[in-house]
Amino acid sequence: xxxxxxxxxxxxxxxxxxxxxxxxxxxxxxxxxxxxxxxxxxxxxxxxxxxxxxxxxxxxxxxxxxxxxxxxxxxxxxxxxxxxxxxxxxxxxxxxxxxxxxxxxxxxxxxxxxxxxxxxxxxxxxxxxxxxxxxxxxxxxxxxxxxxxxxxxxxxxxxxxxxxxxxxxxxxxxxxxxxxxxxxxxxxxxxxxxxxxxxxxxxxxxxxxxxxxxxxxxxxxxxxxxxxxxxxxxxxxxxxxxxxxxxxxxxxxxxxxxxxxxxxxxxxxxxxxxxxxxxxxxxxxxxxxxxxxxxxxxxxxxxxxxxxxxxxxxxxxxxxxxxxxxxxxxxxxxxxxxxxxxxxxxxxxxxxxxxxxxxxxxxxxxxxxxxxxxxxxxxxxxxxxxxxxxxxxxxxxxxxxxxxxxxxxxxxxxxxxxxxxxxxxxxxxxxxxxx
Length: 435
Hints:
Layout: H1 2-12, E1 22-25, E2 31-36, E3 43-49, H2 63-70, H3 82-89, E4 93-98, E5 103-109, H4 114-126, H5 132-151, H6 154-166, H7 180-183, H8 188-198, E6 204-210, H9 214-225, E7 248-254, E8 260-266, H10 274-286, H11 292-300, E9 306-312, E10 319-325, H12 332-348, H13 353-369, H14 374-387, H15 393-402, H16 406-416, E11 422-429
Parallel strand pairs: 2-6, 7-11
Antiparallel strand pairs: 1-2, 3-5, 3-6, 4-5, 8-10, 8-11, 9-10
Helix pairs in contact: 2-5, 4-9, 10-13, 10-16, 11-12, 12-16, 13-15
């Protein structure tokens, strides 16, 4: 059954016409995206604010993440934690996330609760209760999350060090989880300024997908979001990363069992057409056990127990990351040489038609699977709208991947995965009795 489904997705996914997505804008600037989907009796309401880690003041990193938490802590007409309780009471689910480029909130409920859910989101868009008690409590929550997700994770710390090595000036050099010292300095005034700047209808995208009709959605959105006041235009990010001219290297010693090598290469912004070829390249290098890095480092050389790569695609130029985990007796220099040789092969020789087809099929299947559930579909449109500036990118991605040629892969490998563009961090196990 799974094989039949996959074949169906691959043969009709690219050719199927995109669904009838409706988009409009309220007079206050709120961008609305709507799609009717009657597969299941649910509707998802998602609100994306164009404000993430990169939009924070340089000395207040973590404030966007704090806001993700504070948005559940009460507003003018809703008591603290009551938003989540209301959604739970109708059999719905709710959650939120903070990214480098955006902060997103999502509620999935039965269709009869649509108006109630829209009212709740409109309420906290402009009526959030910013009080010292809440700021103090959520500061500690975020700091605990930082301890659990970052300080207790050697690999996450290695990636954090890699970001700071690769990005010298751009805010991407720090992940949106924040820094303890900066979190301790966040005041009510800081929060009010951030809220008034970014939590405005003209800096937000509202997405409604599910078992509801367009006319009803238009009426309800206008009723609850229409009266909200437009805010100032979103500040333009001034930080630009200077071109890297030579490789950068660092190491991190921590109590881990296995050493890990992580490298990063500078790539263009997610809206660049070159991202399609880079995605194909990533699949050729690390798309499963038949991929080049697994076959070379794990199966052939037996120098690593895992090897791969992934694309950090952002609104601004991002990173192409490679990694390998290996035994303590391994040689990090040899591991890196093997990685370099596999990248050089991509630059010097066109990939085989079989590899190209496999990579395209994997990406086409992924683009279809992401649209199977209303929640994932809405999230994809919301993030693509901010990061790629095209909320419908996912619907035509399979067609774009199909146009990528072996020479396109060679070209982007040579242009972006050059040795002088690489930053490298080696996570080294601490010797017994030493930190």
